[in-house]
Amino acid sequence: WQRLHDRREAWPAGSVPAGGLFLTAGADVQKDRIEVDVWAWGHGLESWLVDHVVLDGGPGDEACWAGLDALLSRTWQSASGKAMRILRLAIDTGFEAPAVYAWARRSGSSHVAPIKGVESFNRASPVTGPTYVDATARGKRLRRGAKLWTVAGSTFKAETYRFLRLPRPSEEEREAGARYPAGTIHLPTWIDSEWCKQFVGEQLVTVRTRRGFSRLEWQKLRERNEALDCRVYARAAAWLIGADRWPPSHWADLEAEFGLRAEPLVVAAPSADPNAAASPSMPPQQPRSARSRRPQGRRVRRSSWMA
């Protein structure tokens, strides 16, 4: 945690540094409070912590939920002056799930995603669902009244720790035009040592099952780890809005919208004229008989989120 604390960067609380293109948030529900971290995401899932909010009162206090409503309506200013809102907030249902379902239903599934964490690496996707669960509205039970998403917390924790280990360019290299690697996590100077300790408050260990098999498991190093949990939830929210599946052209359009590129990436449409000259970068197609045949064999698909 000391290395995280030492390499913090300076930007004002509540502002989005250059490179942040959209916002998500993760909310961790506790008995006496709800903690929320707001993250900005850029191309390659580079990320910046832009706000840390603690709403006192807990799930039994309506003022606490009103504070979450206000947070969804709030805007954060980007480096280019653009007002940004949270696109999706993922909230944990591990404590007082009925209260979370009721609030999420009122807020709408397009902005709020109730989630249930599972500690497993052996999942086809880090986020699955939704499944429909019962909710309560004004004392009335509503069958299938809320959507619940399942999140593989182990996967996103492993990704977070991998991003924290990425090498960073020196100040001289950045002045020469070097960029941070994709996935780099930026932390601001206004967070304290307690937050940094929470962010790396777990470790991945190998444990033996009763049958003698070994498996990987995340274990706590300390009691409190809300910062890491909120990061996982905000990352799941980014997955839900499709950031892991956006094509390069979509990222380029977002960057152009924030003034980060002089010219947006343009994908040329195929020519309607079959006799048109081929692009220099794309040699003319050969007849099928002249092409080198692809060796037949088993096709292996690789999931992009494991990269």
Descriptive notes:
- By secondary structure, the chain is of the alpha/beta class.
- It has one domain.
- It is built from 8 helices and 13 strands.
- The strands form 3 sheets. The protein has an 8-stranded mixed β-sheet with strand order 9-10-8-7-2-3-4-11. Strands 1-5-6 form a 3-stranded mixed β-sheet, with no helix packed on it. A two-stranded antiparallel ribbon has the order 12-13.
- The protein starts with a helix and ends in a 50-residue tail after the last helix.
- 27% of the residues are buried.
The parts where pLDDT drops under 50 for at least 5 residues are: 262-307
Q: What separation lies between the terminal Cα atoms?
A: 25 Å
Q: How many beta strands in the DSSP annotation?
A: 13
Rg over alpha carbons: 23 Å
Total helical elements: 8
Q: What count of domains describes the coordinates?
A: 1
Q: By helix and strand content, what is the structural category?
A: alpha/beta
**For the report, how would you describe the main beta sheet?**
8 strands, mixed
Shape: globular
Strand content: 25-35%
Mean pLDDT: 83
Order of helices and strands: HEEEEHEEEHEEEHHEHEEHH
Within the largest sheet, what's the order of strands?
A: 9-10-8-7-2-3-4-11
Q: Helix content range of the residues, please?
A: 25-40%
Pfam families: GpA_nuclease
Region (Disordered): 271-307
Organism: Pseudaminobacter soli
Biased composition (Low complexity): 271-280
